[in-house]
Design a protein that fits this description.
With 139 residues, this protein is an all-alpha fold. The chain contains five helices and no strands. Residues 1-21, 34-94 are annotated as: Disordered.
Length: 139
């Protein structure tokens, strides 16, 4: 183990406490890891990994750099040019007009007051729909 590195602070005792039945359940509820602590630990781990990456990059650059900056800049430009998103092809056909909670304008109605164009229903029905409407009560 290197001399300058601090020992890792592990919270292994929390995992062991969860399995121990001799501990008071009320105490166990207070000592359980929260989502905040778990997220904080994962962020620390990611930060450490990022620092390791940047340190490796800095070390790999070396002390003497002759012309490598120009080559890197050219590479970055060529990569940026090749990864530019291509323009989306123009949409073909007529665009749909959507009217929500408003009556259709007269130019979109036929002689009988019905819509001229009818589109296929675009709703995916699921078996869990019953649960969505179960809470609605009509008094």
């Amino acid at each position: 183990m290197p001399l300058l590195r601090r020992p890792a602070n592990h919270d292994d005792h929390l995992d062991i406490d969860d399995e121990n039945d001799a501990i008071d359940p009320q105490l166990r509820l207070r000592t359980v890891r929260t989502a905040h602590s778990t997220l904080e630990e994962s962020m620390r781990t990611e930060d450490r990994a990022q620092r390791r990456k940047t340190m490796r990059r800095k070390k790999s650059r070396g002390f003497f750099r002759r012309g490598t900056d120009k080559k890197r800049a050219e590479k970055a430009e060529s990569i940026a040019e090749s990864t530019e998103p291509a323009a989306a092809p123009p949409a073909t056909g007529l665009r749909r007009n959507i009217y929500v909670n408003t009556p259709l304008p007269p130019d979109e109605l036929d002689l009988h007051g019905e819509p001229i164009v009818r589109y296929v229903r675009n709703k995916v029905r699921t078996s869990s729909e019953y649960r969505h409407y179960q809470q609605i009560r009509i008094d």
